Amino acid sequence: MITLENLSKSFRSTSGSVVALDDVTLDVPAGVVAGVVGPAGAGKSTLARVLSLRERPDSGVFRFDGRNTGMLDERSLRVARSRIGVVPTGESLLGQRTAAGNIAVPLEQAGMDGPARRERVGKVLDLVGLTDRAGTYPAELSAGQRQRVAVARALVGDPTVVLADDPTAGLDADGAAGVLAVLDRARAELGATVLVATQDTSVVRRIADDVAVLEHGRLVESGRLLELVGDQDSLVARAVLPAIDEPVPGGYAGVADVVLIGFAAVGSLLPEATSRYGTDIAVVGGGVTKIGETPVARFRLGLHGFGADAALGWLAERGASVHRQSVRELAVA
User: Which residues form a coiled coil (predicted)?
Assistant: First the structure.
């Protein structure tokens, strides 16, 4: 669906050239929710503008549905843009138009007739859960509702790709949850590929299938989210899994950090390892979170008994990520 090959983009500033994207290579498959994460200035917004075909890269290739967008003529470029829905950062609605009126803007610009336009607007209002607010002006909506209207406006043209640049910025927990639920529905019910650029790793944890990490314009890590969290050394795992900050109590013969993914693994692997190998396994740190609907645990385990090594090996054979720790090093830390 989206393929970037050695893509770079820079801008001129008063202090010289600023590299916003530096040799980025990335694939986003069709039908996924992909999260692009990184701190302010990492290049996320520039990437979103390139993907929305509002900016051209200085070098490299952006392929959309297999076609090199750098080779498209103006007519083909307009057609490609029409297949990409954009949710901009911050407030973007027209204050003098109702929610329905704001959503209808792209259809009016495309010349769609009134009955077809009203039908399409009604469908996306239902999708974002705002049918009862169709005639309400932006000033009378909450911040989360206004952002859902912005998402609906991006969806009303039935795009194949939706780009959301920091869509939950400035929203409270309920508002953010509502926006993320709508983006997830866009993928599930409309079949759209969704790409979300954000500083907030909780956004990725809640809705992303794939994730890419940008730092200073460079892609430093990417892949399937559940695969990356299984690698305790990955940047993504460190960012989205529960932290382990608690000191290790004394008296344990060994300590190990484990990541368990899935309902069965989180619920049963540790008790079964304990009974199977006659060892004492105690959870001394960490916790459980969710990646989408999948529970993921990151625990620090205190170990007793001769069967500890065998138990850890058995856990690893069943898909757990296991890092044996030095009790002495942890005590010093």
Answer: none
